[in-house]
Structure formats: structure tokens, C-alpha cells
From TrEMBL:
Protein name, per record: Uncharacterized protein
Protein origin, superkingdom: Eukaryota
Bias type Basic and acidic residues, positions: 25-42
Region (Disordered): 1-42
Sequence ranges of Acidic residues compositional bias: 1-11
Length: 112
């Protein structure tokens, strides 16, 4: 004869296991979505480098990257099409084709 108490305990344990798996699956799905979003963001961006054509987001003025300033990732020199050379924060510019500019790695900034 079957012991229903044992069956109830077994069902409760399996239910708890399934609930734990569902929680883990949700976490995994969230991590995958974050990784996918980051990959899409990187695909729509470009790392700043010398010679890269850029444009000011506000004015539309275009030029090319000359150098990072003092190896800092947040500022760079741009030579505008009229020959004017100025220093700006990366956030004010985008690549000429509309991609977002990524800051230079500090190690790379010294050699840019």
C-alpha cells in the first residue's frame, strides 16, 4: 500500500526544486538580455582613434580626431575641416556616420 505522506513530501520537494530552477532561469535570461544590449551598443559605437572623422552633435561641424589630451579618455583634439584645432569632451561628438564615440583607454590615449 502507498504511503501518501511520503508522496506529499516528494511532491513538495520537487515543487521547491522547480521553483528554484525557474528563479535561476529568470536570472540567466536577464543576464543574457544585458549582454545582448551591451553587444548592440558596442556594434553601434566606435572607439576614438586618430584620423577618425567626427562631427559635433550640436553644431554638425565636422573634422578628424588628432589626439587624446594628456592621455585622458574624456577629452580629445579635433582638427575641423577649416583647419581649426580645438579640445573637446568626447560626449559632444559622434562619428561622422552617426555612431557613438567610445572613450580612449587611458593606456592608448598616450599613443593616440
Amino acid at each position: 500500500m502507498m504511503d501518501f505522506d511520503d508522496l506529499d513530501e516528494e511532491l513538495e520537494q520537487k515543487g521547491a526544486d522547480l521553483e528554484a530552477l525557474a528563479v535561476q532561469n529568470r536570472r540567466d535570461r536577464e543576464e543574457e538580455e544585458k549582454a545582448r544590449a551591451e553587444a548592440e551598443r558596442l556594434a553601434k559605437s566606435v572607439r576614438m582613434q586618430a584620423g577618425l572623422r567626427v562631427q559635433n552633435r550640436m553644431t554638425g561641424r565636422t573634422g578628424e580626431v588628432v589626439a587624446a589630451m594628456d592621455g585622458t579618455p574624456a577629452n580629445f583634439k579635433v582638427r575641423f575641416d577649416n583647419g581649426d584645432v580645438r579640445t573637446f569632451p568626447v560626449a559632444k561628438f559622434e562619428a561622422e556616420d552617426g555612431r557613438t564615440l567610445l572613450e580612449v583607454n587611458p593606456e592608448d590615449g598616450r599613443t593616440l
